[in-house]
Amino acid sequence: MSEEEEELGTELIAELYKPPALLPIAPLKDPLLYAIETFPVTIIVGETGSGKTTQIPQFLYKGGWTNDGSQIAVTQPRRIAATSVSARVAEELGCQLGQEVGYSIQFEDVTSEKTKIKFLTDGLLLREMLVDPLLKRYSVVMVDEAHERSLSSDILLSLLKKVLRARPDLRVVVSSATLDAEKFLDFFAPDDGQTVHSKTKVDYETIVSIEGRTHPVDIFYLSSPTNNYVEKAVDTALLIHNSEPDGDILLFVTGREEIDDAIDMVADRIADLGPSAKKLQPLPLYAGLSTEQQMYVFQKADQNTRKLIVSTNIAEASITIDGITYVIDTGYVKLRAYDPVLGLERLNIVPVSKASATQRAGRAGRTRPGKCFRMYTEVAYDALDDATFPEIQRSNLAPVILQLMNLGIQNVVRFDFLDNPPSALVVRALDLLFSLGAVDAYGRLTKPLGARMAELPLEPMLARALLNAPSFGVLSEMLTIAAMMTLQGTAFVAHDGNNKQLERARSRFAVKEGDHVTLYNVYQAFTNPAVGKQSPQWCRENCLNYKAMLKAVSVRKQLRNSLDRMGIQENTLTSSDAIRVGGMEVTERVQRCLTTGFFAQAARMKSDGSFVAVGGDTVLWAHPSSLFFHRKVDWVVYHEIQESKGKVYIRDLTSVEMEWLTEYAPEYYKVKQR
Ligand code: CDP
Ligand code: MG
Predict the structure, then answer these.
(1) SS3 635
(2) What's the confidence (pLDDT) of residue 217?
(3) According to CATH, what is the number of the domain 3-210?
(4) Mean pLDDT of the chain
(5) pLDDT for position 20
(6) CA of 185 to the centre of ligand 1 (A)
């Protein structure tokens, strides 16, 4: 912080934002514009907070890169980053969000004709390539946070490399917080001209490094390991609060539950502090946080109050909070890991990498020297992996392979990946796509089914069920269910943690067939002009999340439009189908239709109330949010599987008949039985 800034006083600084001129990236404006002008690919490396995300798009905009009517795309691995950063840039440019600066995330497009700078998730830019394979509307594509190695950003980089061959005018900016730059440089280097490899490389791309202006951070380790890192972290937070000078604390844990636990513990402990003591204000930070709650995190704390922000790894790089002087790193992170044998997507709690630990520590030294307390020993640190495994090596690849195929990439095994996915993951994905009918026996995308599945912004199983809906005469019902599924369990909310009230509300909509039809009932009631009237008041009374419900209405409309474009109408029930489904209750037709998409995720309830999957021996439990948490059932198909505290939960269950599984997926179950 400069002396002038300090003289302004903290009150005033809270009102103002840091003038972009003071950011470490400011002096690099001209060199950067020169590099981007000269080289198709520019890799930019700089500490988090140096101004890459907010400033580079503005440099380009002011530098004339949108004068011909084209746009600048900036991709983010997380939705929350796309929305919050675009708001910030709009503010800096003095325009309304959605005008010159906008954002676009799945099912939510806040852009207009006037939009020049567009923030979007990397996954959404991939989707845009389906209609605009050469990304013609963009003059520059900036792939931000590339070091995070999200599945979509990895794929996007591969595709951009191809696009550049067809569009020499396109400019690609890859931005990264750590020193992975060489890897990206090697990846983009043109490998055709065998001559003077390094020279070609120099002509084609360049690295620009932003000199950090970070302050030293002292690192402290535990002298012996702990078996309760959350508790230890809370102890440490209180110790800092009671003995260290001013400055906010950022505590990294792995997820919502740990955040809640930590905040509860802190609340108990501060009750013991004397009334005159300086206050400690614990605040949660995670991706699903409402905009209002986010405000508290970014706002300056009251006089005589120290903030303690308890966050997931979202605060590690994509979100910057000012005023942090102390970091407590529990050393763990929740990572997706796909088990191709069981077909389970698990969220495992695993040790962070050295790169993450360094990045977390760095958060303490942004404005002045800081301290980082690691809740592990130095020996444990030395044993950490250097970098986090890229997501492509631990994900369900079915959705992305389906998209690649629809972009005309038939041989995904030979695709130019930044890091190759393990073959077991590719094989599993192709198997699943085959059993869903999206891919034929030769590994080719089927038309129209596979292509349509790729075009729908839904995961393959749900897309398949939706596309089957007309043959069961339940398109309208399935559109609603698909829209409700995209809310990912956020439809119901407990008021002030009152779970009893929540359960009562849920039971008002519940039906014995299970969670999908229950959610359908919720939607019907919400949109019924005589019942929910789409009102916030009614949502409050029924423990429903009003914003989520509005989103479902909007998503349903968008899905409806997608199907319209494919020429799929509500009543395409042929007469023979009609006979087959004739006389069946609508609910049974919905159950059957869901089976045609989710047959691969079937499980049977045992007498103790747990479930076991077909051909597996993992013990599964109905998630507490499910109707079958309490009720008995025989066979179910489920939507999602999650692991939490050592138990594997299945979410969103619908009861089915065992015969339906073999009826709708005979091939799949023949193989399984052998
Ligand atoms: O992308 P990078 O991490 O290099 O930095 P940035 O996101 O462009 O942030 C530059 C500066 O703007 C930081 O000092 C942030 O504190 C500030 N900023 C903010 O105050 N509010 C935001 N929503 C985004 C950035
Ligand atoms: Mg950034």
Answers:
(1) strand
(2) 93
(3) 3.40.50.300
(4) 88
(5) 65
(6) 25
59 alpha carbon, closest ligand: 1
Q: What is the 3-state secondary structure (H, E, C) of 88-150?
A: HHHHHHCCCECCCEEEEECCEEECCCCCCEEEEEHHHHHHHHHHCCCCCCEEEEEECCHHHCC
Task: Say which DSSP state 21 is in.
Answer: G
Whether 17 is in the pocket of ligand 1, judged by its Cβ within 6 Å, is yes
Pairing, β 324-329 against β 248-252: parallel
- Which of the following CATH numbers is that of domain 217-391: 1.10.8.60, 3.40.50.300, 3.90.550.10, 3.40.190.10? 3.40.50.300
DSSP single-letter state for residue 601? S
Q: Does the pLDDT of residue 17 top 90, yes or no?
A: no
Query: Regarding predicted confidence, which is higher, 560 or 671?
Result: 560
Instruction: From 237, 297, 279, 245, select the one nearest 262 (Cα to Cα).
Output: 237
Q: What's the CA gap between 312 and 356, in Å, rounded?
A: 12
Amino acid residing at 241 = H
Does residue 83 line the site of ligand 1, with CB under 6 A? no
Residue 187, CA distances (Å) to 158, 159, 181, 205, 576 in order: 9, 12, 10, 11, 54
Q: How far apart are CA 119 and CA 116, in angstroms?
A: 10
Cβ(135)–Cβ(109) below 8 Å: no
Task: Provide the token pair at 608.
Answer: 């103790």
Can you give the length of the chain in residues?
674
pLDDT in tens, 229-263: 999 999 999 999 999 999 999 999 999 889 999 99
Task: Provide the β-strand partners of residue 279.
Answer: 305
Nearest-CA residue for ligand 1 atom 13 is: 49
| 450 within 8 A of 399, measured Cβ to Cβ | no
Burial 26-36 (b: 16+ CB within 10 A, else e): eebbeebbebb
Average pLDDT estimate for 68-91: 93
Asked if pLDDT for residue 18 goes beyond 80, the answer is no
Give residue for tokens 């061959």.
165
In ligand 1, the atom with minimum distance to the C-alpha of 50 is: 4
In the three-class reduction of DSSP (H, G, I as helix; E, B as strand; rest coil), residue 512 is classed as coil
Asked whether the CA dihedral 650, 652, 657, 663 is positive or negative, the reply is: negative
Q: Which residues fall within 8 angstroms of residue 573, CB to CB, at 6 or more apart?
A: 470, 471, 472, 473, 581
pLDDT at 197: 37
CA distance 463 to 485: 11
647 Cα to the center of ligand 2, angstroms:
35
Question: Looking at the chain, which residues constitute the CATH 3.40.50.300 domain(s)?
Answer: 3-210, 217-391
Element (H or E) spanning 638, and its range? strand 635-644
User: Torsion angle, CA of 618/621/623/627, rounded to 10 degrees?
Assistant: 130
Residue 495 and residue 245: Cα distance in Å, rounded? Answer: 37
Q: What is the CA radius of gyration of the chain?
A: 26
3-class SS of residue 206? strand
Cα atoms found within 13 Å of the Cα of residue 61, Cβ hemisphere only: 20
Sequence-separated contacts (24+) of 190-194 with Cβ below 8 Å: none
Atom of ligand 1 nearest to the CA of 55: 8
Give the confidence band of 671 by pLDDT, cuts at 50, 70, 90. low
- Asked if residue 626 has its Cβ within 6 Å of ligand 1, the reply is no
pLDDT digits (tens, 9 = 90+) for 469-528: 998 999 999 999 999 999 988 899 988 878 899 999 999 999 999 999 999 999 999 999
Q: What's the distance, Cα to Cα, between the start and end of the chain in Å?
A: 68
Please report, for residues 74, 121, 145, the alpha-carbon distance to residue 104 in angstroms, rounded to integers and kept in the order given.
Answer: 10, 7, 17
- The arithmetic mean of pLDDT across residues 640-657, rounded, is 87
